[in-house]
């Protein structure tokens, strides 16, 4: 079902309905328990990303386990598609999506 939803959002994006695609992606991510909190500034979000990554060694990041949870793998697909769409329509929201991609990758594994 998640794969069908993913392809549906891709179809919306490719049929010039990018805002609808973004909204549907956010809804699906919410159902997966992934919230794109935007209660702070984009600058604060970027700072949080830099701080989070600066506390990890390169080796630790490079040796992160492979992601195996199917729902999180599809969540990353949604996030990647969302990041691209938001670059065009809501560029100030991109850091929040990027932060979630990094967070999921570091906690759930690399996909």
Report on the structure:
The chain has 111 residues and is an all-alpha fold. It has six helices and no strands. The protein has helices spanning 2-14, 18-31, 42-54, 58-62, 70-89, 94-108. The longest helix has 20 residues, at 70-89. The protein is globular and about 40 Å long. The two termini are 19 Å apart. The relative contact order is 0.19.
Mean pLDDT across the residues is 91
Portion of residues within helices: over 70%
Tell me about the largest β-sheet: none
Number of strands: 0
* Principal-axis shape: globular
Query: What portion of residues belong to β-strands?
Result: under 5%
- The number of distinct helices, counting runs of at least 4 residues, comes to 6
User: H/E series, N to C?
Assistant: HHHHHH
In short:
With 111 residues, this protein is mostly helical. The chain has helices at residues 2-14, 18-31, 42-54, 58-62, 70-89, 94-108.
